[in-house]
Amino acid sequence: MRKRIALVMLWLLALAVPQTGRVLAQEKKEAPPPPPPLALKVGDEAPDFTLPDDNNGKVTLSSFKGKKNVALAFYIFAFTGG
Amino acid sequence: MQNFQKNLQRLEAADTQVLGISMDSPFSNKAWKEKINVTFPLLSDWGGDVTRKYGLYDDKRKIGRRVNLLIDKDGKIANIQIDRDAVDPSNTVEFCERKKLKG
User: Fold this and answer.
1) CB under 8 Å to A53, separation ≥6 — which residues?
2) Residue of B26, B57, B90, B102 with fewest CB within 10 Å of its CB?
3) Which of A44, A46, A53 is closest, CB to CB, to B42?
C-alpha cells in the first residue's frame, strides 16, 4: 500500500515538473510592456519653452536658434543616472 | 548627467549647448549640480509642463522619461535617444561632431 502511494506521488511529481517548467518559461517570455513610442520625430519643430535655471535665471530654447545646437537631456530626477 | 559633463568639451567644440531638464525644483537642481560638479545649466520643469509638451511624461508611472533630444540650429529635432539608450550620450556627441564636419 505504501509503495503504491509512493508510486502515485512520484507519478504526480513527474507530471508536475514539466508543467512548472512551462509556466516559468511563459513568465520569462512576458517582458514588461514596451514603453509607448515618442510622439516627437526627427525633423519635427522642437516646442519652445522658457524654464528657470539653477542660478535664478531663465533659459529660452528659441534663444539658441541660428546660433547653436541644443542637447536637451530630460532626467527623471536630477539625481538619476546618465 | 555626469556622462554629459564628461563630453561637454566635445559638444561645445561642435557648437552644442547642453541643457539638463528635470521636474525637480531650481533649489534641488542647484544643490545637486554643485554636488556632482556639473557645469551646464539644469532647468527646472516644476509641474512637468514642458515634459508633457514634449510627450515625455509617463502617465502610468507618473514620471518623466529619460530622453536626450538634439535640436539643430533651425530649431528642429535632429537626433533622439530614449530610455536606457539615453544614459550614454555618445550617440548624441558623435552626431554633433559629424554634423559639424558636414558644415
Assistant:
1) A59, B26, B29, B41, B42, B43, B44
2) B102
3) A53
Confirm whether B103 is domain-assigned.
no
Tell me the three state secondary structure of residue B62.
Answer: coil
Q: Determine the structural domain holding residue A12 and report its residue range.
A: 2-64
- Report the candidate in B19, B103, B31, B34 with the shortest Cα–Cα distance to residue B68: B19
The model's pLDDT over B52-98, given as tens digits with 9 standing for 90+, comes to 999 998 887 777 888 999 999 999 999 999 888 888 999 899 988 99
CATH of the domain at B71: 3.40.30.10
In chain B, residues with a C-beta closer than 8 Å to the C-beta of A31 are none
* Predicted-complex ipTM score: 0.92
Q: How far apart are the first and last CA of chain B?
A: 28
Query: B71, A42: Cβ pair inside 8 Å?
Result: no
Domain count, chain B: 1
- pLDDT tens digits for range A16-66: 776 665 666 666 666 666 667 788 999 999 999 999 999 999 999 999 999
B-proximal residues of A, 45-64, CB under 8 Å? 45-49, 51-57, 59, 61-62, 64
CB contact under 8 A, A79 and B32: yes
